[in-house]
C-alpha cells in the first residue's frame, strides 16, 4: 500500500482550495518578517591556484650530477639535499686544508699555554750551572793574574787563557740568565697574535672550500613538492643552470584579476571563500593576502592573491598549482539594508512587488508594495520600498494573490510540523 507524504497532501490541498475558491476568498499563505542588517555586494571572479612559493633550484658551479634523491611529486624538506655534483678533488683539498688548520691551532695553543714548569726549571738549572762555571773561571783568572803580574811565575799565554775563559764564562752565565727570564715570562703577545692570524687565514681557506662543496649540493630553502626535474644522474650541470623546481603547497594563492572599479572595495586580510572547479560545492576558506598595485594595461584588472590553507588526502595536497576556481570578493561598501527571501518577490506586469500581511476589516489581507531590488545576500535580497523591519511578507502562496485579498497566514508551528512530518 502506498504511503502519502503529509507535506505533499498539505500542498495539494492548498492548491485545490485555491482553484475551487473565488479569487477574493481567503488564501492560505506563509510569511516571514522583513530583516534589517548590514550587507555588501559581492562578485565572483575566476582565479588560478598558484603555489605560495615556487623556486627553480640551480647549480652555482659546473659539475657532473652523481646523485638525484627525489622524483617528481615527492615531498622535499628544507635544506634536504635534492641533487649532488661530483666533489672528489675539492674534498681532498678541503681535507688537506683542515689538517693544516689543526697544526696552526696546535701552535697557537702551545703559545697561549706558555712555557711549561719543567722547561723553566731546566732553564734555571742551566743558569745556575753557568753561574758556578763563571765563579770558578773568575777565581782561576784572579789567580793567574796574581801569578803573572805579581810573582811572574806563569807565562803570558796561561794568563791570557785564564782571562779569556773567565770572560766567556761570564757571557755564558748572562745568556743562561736571560734565557731563564724569558722562560718565566713566556711567549710574547705579538707571537700569539701572529699565531692567531695564521689560524684565521687557515680557517678562511677551509670555510671557502666548504662553501664550494656546499655549492655542489643542491638544496631547497623551504618545504615543498618537487614539481619538475631538469636533469638526471650523469648529466653535466652548468653554473646557473636549472636542476629542479620546488613548489610550496601547504598553503596556496588563488590569484584572481579584479576590474579597477571593484578593486577599491577589496581589503587585505578580509576572509573569503574559494570554490575550485575540480571540487564543485566544496568551499575552501581563505584570506586576501595581497593586492598587486600594477594593472594589466589591456584588461585594466589588478591581480588579487587569496591565501588558502591547503588540505591533504593520503599525504597529497588537494589544491594543486594550475587549478581554476571561483573567488567571492566584496565589491561595495557595507550598508544597512532591508532584506526579504527571494521567494517573496513577485513580478507584476514588468514591475517587482511584495505582499505585506496587513490588518483588514474581517481579518488579514495582502497589501501589495512595489519594490526596487538591490544586493543579493545568499537566499535573501535587498528591497527598497515602503517597508519596515519586522513587517511580515508573503513567501509562499503569493503568486495568485491580489491587492487587498483576505489571507490566512499559516502558523510557524504548523508549517514546521508539516515540513518535519
From TrEMBL:
Keyword Nuclease: no
Entry-linked Gene3D superfamilies: 2.40.30.170, 2.40.420.20, 2.40.50.100, Helix hairpin bin
GO molecular function: transmembrane transporter activity
Taxonomic placement: Bacteria, Pseudomonadati, Planctomycetota, Planctomycetia, Pirellulales
One cellular-component annotation, GO: cell envelope
Membrane-spanning residues: none
Residue span, YbhG-like alpha-helical hairpin domain: 97-206
Residues covered by the CusB-like beta-barrel domain: 254-332
Keywords: Coiled coil, Signal
Family of the protein in this entry: Belongs to the membrane fusion protein (MFP) (TC 8.A.1) family.
Record-linked InterPro entries: Beta-barrel_RND_2, HH_YbhG-like, RND_pump_MFP, UPF0194_transport
Signal peptide extent: 1-25
One Pfam family it belongs to: Beta-barrel_RND_2
Protein name: Efflux RND transporter periplasmic adaptor subunit
Nucleus listed as a keyword: no
Source organism of this protein record: Blastopirellula marina
Coiled-coil ranges (or none): 89-121, 159-212
Location in the cell: Cell envelope
Amino acid at each position: 500500500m502506498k504511503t502519502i507524504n503529509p507535506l505533499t497532501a498539505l500542498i495539494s490541498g492548498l492548491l485545490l482550495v485555491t482553484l475551487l475558491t473565488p479569487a477574493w476568498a481567503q488564501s492560505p499563505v506563509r510569511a516571514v518578517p522583513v530583516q534589517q542588517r548590514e550587507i555588501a555586494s559581492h562578485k565572483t571572479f575566476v582565479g588560478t591556484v598558484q603555489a605560495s612559493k615556487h623556486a627553480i633550484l640551480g647549480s652555482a658551479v659546473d659539475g657532473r650530477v652523481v646523485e638525484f634523491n627525489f622524483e617528481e611529486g615527492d615531498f622535499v624538506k628544507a635544506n634536504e639535499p635534492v641533487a649532488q655534483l661530483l666533489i672528489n678533488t675539492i674534498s681532498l683539498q678541503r681535507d688537506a686544508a683542515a689538517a693544516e688548520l689543526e697544526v696552526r691551532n696546535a701552535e697557537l695553543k702551545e703559545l697561549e699555554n706558555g712555557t711549561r714548569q719543567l722547561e723553566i726549571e731546566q732553564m734555571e738549572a742551566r743558569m745556575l750551572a753557568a753561574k758556578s762555571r763563571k765563579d770558578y773561571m773568575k777565581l782561576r783568572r784572579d789567580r793567574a793574574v796574581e801569578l803573572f803580574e805579581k810573582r811572574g811565575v806563569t807565562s803570558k799565554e796561561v794568563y791570557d787563557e785564564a782571562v779569556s775563559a773567565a770572560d766567556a764564562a761570564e757571557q755564558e752565565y748572562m745568556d743562561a740568565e736571560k734565557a731563564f727570564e724569558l722562560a718565566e715570562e713566556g711567549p710574547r703577545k705579538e707571537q700569539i697574535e701572529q699565531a692567531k692570524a695564521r689560524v684565521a687565514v687557515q680557517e678562511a681557506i677551509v670555510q671557502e672550500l666548504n662553501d664550494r662543496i656546499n655549492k655542489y649540493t643542491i638544496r631547497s630553502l623551504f618545504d615543498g613538492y618537487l614539481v619538475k626535474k631538469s636533469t638526471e644522474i650523469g648529466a653535466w650541470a652548468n653554473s646557473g643552470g636549472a636542476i629542479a623546481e620546488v613548489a610550496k603547497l601547504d598553503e596556496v594563492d588563488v590569484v584572481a584579476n579584479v576590474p579597477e572599479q571593484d578593486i577599491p572595495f577589496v581589503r587585505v586580510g578580509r576572509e573569503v571563500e574559494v570554490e575550485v572547479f575540480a571540487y564543485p560545492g566544496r568551499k575552501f576558506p581563505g584570506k586576501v593576502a595581497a593586492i598587486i598595485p600594477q594593472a594589466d594595461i589591456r584588461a585594466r584588472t589588478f591581480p588579487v592573491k587569496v591565501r588558502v590553507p591547503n588540505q591533504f588526502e593520503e599525504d597529497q595536497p588537494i589544491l594543486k598549482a594550475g587549478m581554476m576556481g571561483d573567488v567571492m570578493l566584496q565589491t561595495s561598501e557595507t550598508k544597512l539594508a532591508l532584506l526579504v527571501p527571494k521567494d517573496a518577490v513577485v513580478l507584476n506586469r514588468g514591475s517587482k512587488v511584495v505582499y505585506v500581511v496587513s490588518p483588514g476589516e474581517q481579518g488579514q489581507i495582502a497589501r501589495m508594495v512595489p519594490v526596487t531590488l538591490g544586493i543579493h545576500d545568499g537566499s535573501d535580497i535587498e528591497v527598497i520600498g515602503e517597508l519596515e523591519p519586522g513587517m511580515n511578507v508573503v513567501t509562499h502562496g503569493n503568486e495568485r494573490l491580489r491587492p487587498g485579498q483576505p489571507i490566512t497566514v499559516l502558523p510557524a508551528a504548523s508549517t514546521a510540523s508539516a515540513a518535519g512530518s
